[in-house]
Structure formats: structure tokens, C-alpha cells
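Q: We require from you a single protein entry containing the residue sequence and its fold in C-alpha cell form, and nothing else.
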Amino acid sequence: MKFILNTAVDPHFCALFDENNELIERREWTNRRMDGREVFEFLNKFHLGFKKIQNPGLSFTFLGGVAGPGGFSSLRAGAGVLNALSFSYKLPVHQVRADRWIQEFLRTQGENAQAFVLNSFSDGVFISEGENPNAPLQRVDVNEAVQRFSEPVFVGLLPIEKQKKFSKSLDIPFENTELALLTVLEKTNPQEIFLPDYEFPPV
């Protein structure tokens, strides 16, 4: 089975897939303080965990997660889970930054090189202006972000109160997110350990 975990972008979620990339089950939550508990409960439902002997008939063949940007504690919790599973199941871990995942998602929607905005704490947001997909994200105040965009921008991952500030937005439902994430993760080279991406300061 393939297991993926997102504790970077709201809502947080984890999901299990079979070998044909058919979704078995997905669990979603919004309370960042529950990251560890939600994942443990999800894995326990399938009698999966950090000891293979719990369910000898089920095993992981793929592990992957979103490296950041996101809350410091949430990224650390996600890293802890993925690294513990990696050690227990002797599997490397695939990882991708959220902006690469969102760029790939927008491409699947026919929106090449589009700008997007990701949530940050307080009144901040991360912005990608779309022209250079390898450019680092910038963290700015949400009101500054609104002023920056004269063309429609994807804000589907922002809380509703921040979305409302953008008068020009791309109306793209962010659906099948777990499959979009798995697709991007499968294109990455797995690493021995999962390292949260601290290119961005913890916020």
C-alpha cells in the first residue's frame, strides 16, 4: 500500500492507496494540534503502525509527504511519523514542497504558469507569481498580496476570510488532492529520511 501525508497545507490529510493508485481511504483534519493523533488513529484502523507484525497481511510499498512551507510543529510532526514508518518498514521517503504540488495540480487543470497563494499564520500568505516555477515563495501580508495581482490568482487553499479579499480569483475546485499529491511524489527521488523544508522561516 502507498501512504501519503500532508501536514503543510490546510486541510491536513493522510491517505492510503493500493498499487494501482486507487484510493483506499483518506482522513482530513483542520486542528493542527491533532496531527499526530489523527495519523495514529488512521493507521490503527488498518492495523498498521510502526511494527510490521501488527498486520502481516498489509505492508507499505511507498511513503511520501509534503515538506513545507507550513507550521513548524506540524512539519515536525509529519516528519516524525514518516521517518518512524520509514525506519520500521525499511522504506525511503518521497517528499515534495507544497508549491511544486500546487503547480502540478494547476497544470492538470490546464492552468499553466498561474500564480497562486498559500496560507500562512496571522495575516500572512505565501505567494508564487507563476512566471518562474523555481522561484522561491515569498511571505507577505495578505493585503499586499491582493495589491500584487492584477490577473486572476488561485486562492483555493486559503481560509474563506482571506479568499474574500481577492476580487480576481481562479475558480478551480481543489479536488482529488490526494491523487494529485501522490502523482507528484512518485516523480521524486526517495530519500533516506524525510526532512522538512526550512527554506522558509518557521511562522
Residues 112-163 form one domain. The beta strands are 2-6, 12-17, 23-29, 62-66, 94-96, 116-119, 124-128, 138-141.
